[in-house]
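tool=predict chain=A
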Amino acid sequence: MELVVQKREKLGRITKELRKEGTIPAELYGRGIENIHLSVQLKDFRKVFKAAGETTVINLVLGNEKHPVLIQGVTYHPVKDGIESIDFYKVRMDEKLKVKIPVEFFGISVAVKDKNGVLIKALKELEIEALPANIPHDIKVDISKLDEIGKSIYVKNLNIPADVKVMVSGETVVATIIEKVSEEKEAAMQQAAAGGVEGVKVEVEEKKAERATEAAAAAPVAGAGAEPKKEEKKVGKKA
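tool=predict ok
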């Protein structure tokens, strides 16, 4: 895929005018090259971005030059949600990159459809290392293989190209099926949990009372071993 861009001479606040004209400011950078200010037509960029995402190498066409790049980042307006700016990272086709690619699920799980199971998607992206030309657009996961409650798909079960290295353990769970808990069972579990908390509170209070009793029994009686005080006679005037 190719995307035609132009060098941008206008910088700063003037870029707001470019956006009104359907042109988006962009930056091209990478190891060993100087930063280049660019502009790109929004409608052209949207088409390429939809197909390539941030994981597929595209060619930026700048005059008579072509630069292999990854779309490194897209900045959106916080309120209007329009594209504010774009970053292109120039890659070397002979140098491996570490990137995170999306995990795409497809198919229908029998365990969910017929056995009241719940699908848990534990992994939404996968970190890999590969040459730019070998980076897959995404990783497909067929959940129709999950036909029983408790069954899981692991990274080691995925169809990964031989020239792509996965940067996480093969035992990492990608998706799993758990049993759906009924409302009655959930209420019973919550009640049991609450009872356990109350039981702990009672036990703590009992322990406190027990320690207080032991401390009182061990403490010396006030005045023990001392002679009793003689009762003092009150002296008063005779009537």
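The chain has a mean pLDDT of 82. The CA atoms of residues 15 and 25 lie 7 Å apart.
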